[in-house]
Amino acid sequence: MVIRHRRAGDQAKDKQHGLDPLCIGVVAPRTGRLAPPGAPLGHVLRAPAPHLTHVRNGGRRYEVTVAVRDSRSEPGSARRAVRELADEDGARTRLDTVAGTLDWTGGPTPDIALLPLVGGQWQPGPDGPRLAVVHNAGHPEVPLTGDLAPAH
């Protein structure tokens, strides 16, 4: 992991080497009244660096970079810092998770992510209770594995 700012062309280079870019954006108070004494943030960011040079997940390889912005202990500065992460570092507030995609850029209002859910119900199974998916209108790609049963 390299703690640096992403520059134009970095993502193309990563792709050329078979790596997907993964930029971790950090906005924290490094100055101002909320900043902790000393430099704990720098230590926390440098400590895992040797272990995160290239991360593998699901057969894909990622080149990890960390972009750090100072919130200056003020809400307005923190908002500007988040915008800088997106504009200058290519960070996106979109994350694919096991539960679906969280996208803070496309919600009903800024900084809101909607996550459609599926409905599950514990039902008796041959080897004990199992969690059955009984409602999938929010994620039709998730298969139904049971019917909603009345509670006893």
Describe the structure.
Helices cover 19% and strands 32% of the residues. It has 152 residues and is an alpha/beta fold. Strands 1, 2, 3 and 4 form a four-stranded mixed beta sheet that branches. Strands 5-6 form a two-stranded antiparallel sheet. β5 and β6 form a beta hairpin. The N terminus is likely disordered.
Strand segment tally: 8
The main β sheet shows up as:
4 strands, mixed
Strand content: 25-35%
Specify the overall morphology. Answer: elongated
Structural classification = alpha/beta
Number of helices: 3
Percent range of helical residues:
10-25%
Q: Output the helix-strand order.
A: EHEHEEHEEEE
Low-confidence stretches: 1-8
How far apart the termini lie comes to 54 Å
Q: Keyphrases for this structure?
A:
elongated, two-stranded antiparallel sheet, alpha/beta, disordered N terminus, 32% strand, 152 residues, four-stranded mixed beta sheet
Please specify the SSE layout and strand pairing.
Layout: E1 2-3, H1 10-16, E2 20-28, H2 40-46, E3 54-57, E4 60-70, H3 75-89, E5 94-97, E6 100-103, E7 119-125, E8 128-135
Parallel strand pairs: 1-4, 2-4
Antiparallel strand pairs: 3-4, 5-6, 7-8
